[in-house]
Structure formats: C-alpha cells, structure tokens
Amino acid sequence: MGSALFLSIDQGTTSSRAALYDHQGQQVACCGAPLECHYPADGWVEQHPEAIWQSQLAALQQLEQAISPEQRRAVVACGIANQRETTVLWRRGTQESLAPAIVWQDGRTAALCAAWKQQGLEATIRQRTGLLVDPYFSASKIVWLLRELPAAAAAAAAGELCFGTVDSWLLWRLCGRHATDCSNASRTLLMDLEQLRWDLELASNLGVPPDALPELLPSQAAFGTIAAGLPFAGVPITAVLGDQQAATLGQSCLTSGEGKCTYGTGAFLVINTGATIQRSDAGLLSTVGWTDAAGRPTYCLEGSLFNAGTAIQWLRDGLQLIERSDQVNALAASCSSSGGVMLVPAFTGWGTPHWDPAARGLLIGLSRDTGPAQLARATLEGIALAVATLVELAEEALGEPLQELAADGGAAAADLLLQAQADATGLPVRRRADLESTARGVALLAGVQAGELEGLGAWSDLAEAPGARRFEPAISPEQRQHRQQRWRSAVERSLHWHEPDLQQAQVVTPSGAA
After folding, report:
1. Could you give the CA distance from residue 19 to residue 439 in angstroms, rounded to a whole number?
2. How far apart are CA 428 and CA 470, in angstroms?
C-alpha cells in the first residue's frame, strides 16, 4: 500500500495537467500543457474539443515520460477533475465533436434563459436542481447548439447524439464510456439534486434529448480503464469530480461548515454542508460536493465569481503591465494603496449574487496619479472584495460565521490578494504550500475507491505542512465596512451594461468542430 501512486488528470479552462501523488498526499511529479480559449463575439467563449483532448493527452505523455519505470508500475488508480459546465457534443460511435465546446463563462444563451424565466420555469428548476436559470450552466448551451448547428440536430434526430461536460469527453476518449459523476451532473441544470438522477421530464421540457445524456455514476466508481496505446494504459479510472468539488476535498473541508475559495480562472467559494441541501435565496448555489461508492452524497453551498485569474491575465495580455502573471504581486506591492481605484472584474458577466450576463468590467476612481501599480493593486483587491460578498452571503445562509477560509489556485500565490481577502472578510485565510488542491483532491478520492487509502481524511494533516501560511485581518471593522459600501456602489454601476449586437449574435462559428 505504501508504494502506490495515484494519477490525477486536472483539465482546466486555460491548461491541462497530469500529476502523481503518493500515499501520503505528496505530489511526486506534475506536467502540464496550455489550452487556448476563443472569443468569436462579445460574451462568447469557446474551445476546440479536440484541443481540450490533445492538451490533456500531451500532459499525460509528458508525465509518463518524466517518471521512472518503477513509478509507472506503481500507478494503481486515476482520478479526473475538470472545468465544469463546459459543453461538448459528439456523435456516438466516433471520436469527432460536432460543435465548439461552449465554455462555462460563455453568455450567448442569455436570451434563451430569459425566455425560460418568462415561461415561469425558474422556480421549478431551482427547486429540482439547486441552481438558477443562467447561461453558466450546461442545459441552455446544449439547446443553443441544437438550434444553431444542423449537424448536432441531425445526430439528435438519429439518436446518435452524445452530450457531456469535459469529464465525459475525456472518459470517452480515454476508455470509450459515455458517463459522468453526480458532482458534474449537478452543474448541468438537468439533475434532480435530491434524487441524484437525471430529471428526464425537465430535460425534455427544456429541449434536451434525454438519450443524449451520459450514464450517471457516483463520484467514486469503476469508470473504466485507460485504453491501450494511450499514456498510462491499463490504469483504472476510479474517481471523477468537478474541479471545485475536487479542490474542496483537496483542502480537507470534510466537516459541515468548512469552506475554501479557489482562485483560478474564476474564484469559487465552496462550503461543505454535509448530508443537508442548504438552499439560499441570495444567489448562492446548492450543489453536490461528491458521492461515495454507495452514492451517498455530501452537499455543498457555492458562490461563483466568473473572473479572477482572467483579471490578472488582462493586466498581462490586455494592458501589458506585466510579462508573467506571477509578477502581479510585486507590481501591486510597489504602491501603498490603490489610490481609491476599484476594479469590478465582470469581464464576461456577473455570477453570485446578481447572475447578470449583461454585466461588464468596471474601472472606477482613476486620477492623474493612477499608474500600473495602482491598477494591479485594485485588481487584487477587486477579486478579494467580490469573494467577500460571497462569504457574507454564505454566512447568512448557514446562520453562523465561518472560522477561516482555505485558499488555493494559481492566483492564491499572490500574498497581497490573500491579505486583501483577510481584510475584506475579517477571517483568517489559510494557504497550503501546495496550491494544487484540485489535483490532490481527485487523487485522494481515486485512492480511496481503489482501496489504497483508508478514508477522505487520510491527507488532512497536509494543512499544517511546512510552507503553509495564514493571513490575518489587518484593518478595523469600520474600514472594512467603508470599503464594502464603496464596492457595492461600484458593482451596481457594472450591471445591465452590455447590449448585444443582434447581427453579431446571429453569427454561428463552428470553430471547435472537429
């Protein structure tokens, strides 16, 4: 048991990674490959399904080549974690996609979602799925593709259409099985949150062919074996999780009331609510965290900020203020304050609590003294203030305060971001030395299912491993309240801004079709 290694496939929005973990939860090796997003119209975000696969395949190939033969033989199980909600369609019996993958950030289906609301469907959808009607989730993306792309509609009419989130697409390419797990299914707008099964009536009413849905399995299950000819051939796939749920496990948030925030492409606050579905009237989402091998669920409450790391990328690529994303902390630290500047990072709309796909980013408070350092600091503070709103709403829904906030994800490497987070929430913020909680979490679940680890708490002592750091609040409650009031005023100005170009919105670019 002590020599076993666990393979983690971590497919994200901007990169794909493959990593190995040992039985103590230590990362042994990790390789990655970039993944490009395409923006064919304002608010549209696409990826090539084949590019998603090739990116993940490259990471796996690099990892297998980087390890020793002894390490390769020690790999006993594989887990898949993935960007959620992103929608892929393909024809059954082939490995060719029918359409672009519509990424979770994409807002093109806003009109369709508005029509569903006008039809009075939102209350039913909310009760059954725990989610809100929004372009974020997969159902409207599927319907849009079926309406706009004849090849997809023809496959559906012939009973040959397969829909999947990215985990399903990877499973199909890795082992030929059309399946998903409950954590990913709970993000589609199509799964009954209480019954943990597809709501076929709801799917039909929304225009999603029920026979296109993947087989629904527990998060711990025998999903298949990596096929011959692929890297790590013969390794069983024993766990699948959405990336945010995997990060929650990876941060050892195993008890009801424990929560983490992952600062990746977006920022996602996820709080364990145990066996109870905690519902919110303030725009938070009720979702499946994970299910055990018997299908018993752990539920979570989630707040979603669509743009976090993308705001730092904008400083790098759009404004060219930095050459690398990891330089943002030093640039922001070169000034003592943002000088009253605030950045609202609503580049592709707003998630919790406003759920406004027409919101857009806002930079306010500029003066002649504003320079690159103030913009960098305002960006980090804007992310932190947005997450503080999620924390406040979660505490209200739970009826009790959080004790601390665990932080992970690439942007969490910025000390100023996490100090701003502690200041904005009034909570201690804990950062582990290893920021890759997503990969670690699904590796843990795979190891438990394979019988190589004794339980989900097997790696919980990593929270206090060398290199971990805590950030304590350093401002007064009065200062915190003042900042939050100004923040709310700035956010209000960013809402309902985008007016879609109707002519542009009618253009369909099947750029992701294979």
Report:
1. 7
2. 6
Pairing status of strand 101-102 against strand 46-47: antiparallel
Q: Which residue has the tokens 């003294």?
A: 369
Distance of alpha carbon 232 from alpha carbon 107, whole angstroms:
37
Q: Which residue intervals of 29-165 are DSSP H helices?
A: 49-66, 69-74, 110-118, 122-129, 138-148, 150-157
3-class state of residue 464 by DSSP? helix
CA dihedral (402, 404, 409, 413) in degrees, to 10, reads 150
Q: How far apart are CA 259 and CA 187, in angstroms?
A: 19
d(CA 456, CA 250): 9
Q: Is the pLDDT of residue 512 over 60?
A: no
Let me know: does 231 contact 62? Beta carbons within 8 Å.
no
Q: Which pLDDT does position 295 carry in this prediction? A: 94
Bridge partners for 88 per DSSP: 164
| 43 neighbors 59 (Cβ within 8 angstroms) | no
| Gap between the Cα atoms of 247 and 30, Å rounded | 17
> Which residue in 170, 32, 175, 192 sits closest to 90, CA to CA?
170
- How many Cα neighbours within 13 Å face the side chain of 172? 28
pTM for this predicted structure? 0.89
How far is 347 from 319, CA to CA, in rounded Å?
A: 14
CB atoms within 10 A of CB 70: 9
Which token pair is 74? 């020690």
Compute the distance between CA of residue 398 and CA of residue 396 in angstroms, rounded to an integer: 6
pLDDT recorded at residue 434: 82
Q: What is the pLDDT of residues 311-344, one digit of tens each?
A: 999 999 999 999 999 999 999 999 999 999 999 9
Place of tokens 């707008």: 189
Distance CA 46, CA 145 (A): 12
Residue 375 to residue 371: CA distance in whole angstroms: 6
Q: Alpha-carbon distance 449 to 112, whole Å?
A: 40
User: How do beta strands 297-305 and 267-274 pair?
Assistant: antiparallel
Within its chain, how far is the Cα of 321 from the centroid? Answer: 27
> Taking a C-beta distance cutoff of 8 angstroms, is the pair 248, 289 a contact?
yes
Strand partners of residue 469: 431
Contact criterion met (CB below 8 Å) for 33 and 55 = yes
d(CA 88, CA 226): 20
**494/359 Cα distance (integer angstroms):** 5
500 pLDDT above the threshold of 80? no
pLDDT for 466? 65
Sole residue written with tokens 């296109």: 212
Half-sphere exposure at residue 449, Cβ-oriented, CA atoms within 13 angstroms:
31
271-294: per-residue pLDDT in tens? 999 999 999 888 999 999 999 999
Q: Give me the helix-helix angle, 122-129 and 110-118, nearest 10°.
A: 100
Closest among 92, 94, 99 to 214, alpha carbons compared: 92
Contact criterion met (CB below 8 Å) for 456 and 248: no
